[in-house]
Amino acid sequence: MRASATEIGSIVDADGVEICVVDVHREKPDDEVRAIVALIVDAVNAKQEHTQ
User: Fold this and answer.
1) How many domains does the chain have?
2) CB 24 within 8 A of CB 9
3) CA 1 to chain centre
4) How far apart are CA 30 and CA 15, in angstroms?
5) In this predicted model, what pLDDT tens digit does every residue of 11-25 receive, in sequence order?
6) End-to-end Cα distance, the chain
7) Residue 11: how many CB atoms within 10 A of its CB?
8) What is the pLDDT of residue 39?
9) Which H or E run contains 3?
10) Segments forming the whole domain that contains residue 6
């Protein structure tokens, strides 16, 4: 899982398929959305590393 390279707030899977959108209505500043996305991606990827 990773942040989309082209869409702020989008989280994509290993194949680049969008699986989640943070702030779909674009109400938050971009920097805040990027920080939220980073937290989610880091947490999910860390959990996956521990379960493998």
Assistant:
1) 1
2) yes
3) 7
4) 24
5) 999 999 999 999 999
6) 15
7) 20
8) 97
9) strand 2-3
10) 2-51
